[in-house]
TrEMBL record:
InterPro entries cross-referenced by the UniProt entry: STMP1
Species, as recorded: Pipistrellus nathusii (Nathusius' pipistrelle)
Protein's recorded name: Uncharacterized protein
Length: 84
């Protein structure tokens, strides 16, 4: 118990010294600023119709890409010759 009390008193003395001699930031104000910044960066929830429209566009694009089959290209070194 005495060891705990010594550490507690020493910690308080160090904290008082630092607070008096150095410019310590106010943590409560810093936390409020961070909270305001986080709230400002939040996106508003999107409407369901907008989300469905966006999803439909993506699916249409994917299916159009899947149905696209490019014609095979012949290598330049290999030329097709008629068979005899």
């Amino acid at each position: 118990m005495l060891q705990f009390l010594d550490g507690f008193i020493f910690g308080n003395l160090v904290a008082m010294y630092l607070a008096q001699n150095y410019d310590m930031p106010n943590l409560a104000k810093k936390l409020e600023e961070i909270k305001k910044d986080m709230d400002a960066k939040k996106k508003p929830p999107s409407s369901r119709g907008h989300l469905q429209h966006w999803l439909q566009e993506i699916l249409t694009l994917l299916f159009s890409m899947a149905s696209f089959t490019p014609e095979p290209k012949l290598l330049s070194s290999v030329q097709s010759q008629p068979l005899l």
